[in-house]
Amino acid sequence: MPTPSRKNDSQARACAHAVNEILWTTLAYGRPTDRALNAFLRANKQYGSRDRRLTSHMVFAVLRWWGWLARLAPRPFQDALKRVGANPDSYQQRPEPAPQGDSRAWSQILLGAHVLENSHRPDIARVWAGHIQRRSPKPFTEDDALPFRARELAKRLGVNLAGLREGQLVPKWAAAEIPHSLPKGETLSWLQRRPPVWLRAQTDAVPKLLVQLRKAELEPERHAQMARAIRIGHPRTNLRTLDSFRKGAFEVQDLASQVVAHVCAPKPGQRWWDACAGAGGKTLHLADLMQSKGTVLATDIRTRKLEDLRKRARRAGFSNIQCREWRGDAVSRKRATFDGILVDAPCTCSGTWRRNPDGRWTTSLRDVTEMAERQLGLLTSAATGLRSGGIIVYATCSMFAQENTGVVEAFLAKHAAFALDPFTDPLTGKNCDGTRLIAPWEGDCDTMFVARFRHSG
Ligand SMILES: C[S@@+](CC[C@H](N)C(=O)[O-])C[C@H]1O[C@@H](n2cnc3c(N)ncnc32)[C@H](O)[C@@H]1O
Fold first, then answer.
1. How far, in Å, from the CA of 379 to the mean position of ligand 1?
2. Among 29, 243, 276, 434, which residue is least crowded by beta carbons within 10 Å?
């Protein structure tokens, strides 16, 4: 076996150490991985840009396959995880340092994630293989089906991993909650694919933007049906440094998320309310579709998020967005003046488990049920702001029926003045009966649910 260079060896070890720590903070204390990753890198300034890129890539790859790889974790890590996991208050506690153990176990886990995802650093994978006295095994291809990988993985890693099944890639309760409209095998296989990045052009000059993106060594592909949606694969470029970004010519936004504002279909001059606007991904899209004419009121319980929205609106040059705090209360009757309302509700985000695989391991069935209650409350309160005959759109990035059709049915049961409002599906151009669940294979995107209601007026 060739001896790795000192640089590669130290990079491989640094990545294994970081993955151990970040996984611990996420799995034992429920911290979102992107935040745990940032906190780790802030505290470990010795990690250079290549270390950071490798660590960030691998930590998400490991979490995507954690349902299979967890059994390879060092025993002290597994035992401590069980102890902390049994304590419902652990999410409120300050994370303790990760339990250590045989560091070769992390090399094995990282090698496993590399083989499963064919990660971009085969040179580093060779070092992890060296740590466990093996040659680096052949990675799987994207076309290798999950049952085949489940059978082959143990052989390729030279370990005992009997009885792997595709259903283990998410918690048992989650596999049972996948709705019938999403075939289980296909859904699980898509959850394992690293998602591409999508942009939403925020300019009429899309061909010019495409030229600028190509100059930046990106390979933009325009969506056939949604002409302003641009797929750029897995870019290495920092998009925020591009001139076109600074000038507000595009926003990063998943394809499925871009469908939502099109379902709202606001008209120039109207009054819209984006009730759960967050940092305003969909607010900006609504304002764009309204050609800056009329108003969009953007509200959220987290006013800090609205600050981000204000910056983004300035960058894009939209002057018709107003931001305000909203805590989910009903609106007084005299203020029920909106032509349209969007409730992009807080949810379990299970539809984004491709890109945020940590959510699979930090969400519980109780969260789904609690979310559904909260969502119905927000939709009910927001609906009080609608003018007679107006439109209200409800959206989640969850795949679970409780949060989607469950909320729609409960809302309709209590609101006789509302009915589902059919629309043309922006993704396919086909007619929809008023609800739509977008599957990841329909556009290499997140799963997203959207429902459109009309007030009978
Ligand atoms: C799915 S996110 C919104 C994402 C945003 N629309 C976008 O496209 O970027 C849901 C938002 O609902 C907000 N939220 C949660 N509870 C709320 C409440 N009671 N009142 C208002 N907003 C709430 C959260 O702060 C979060 O920003």
1. 12
2. 243
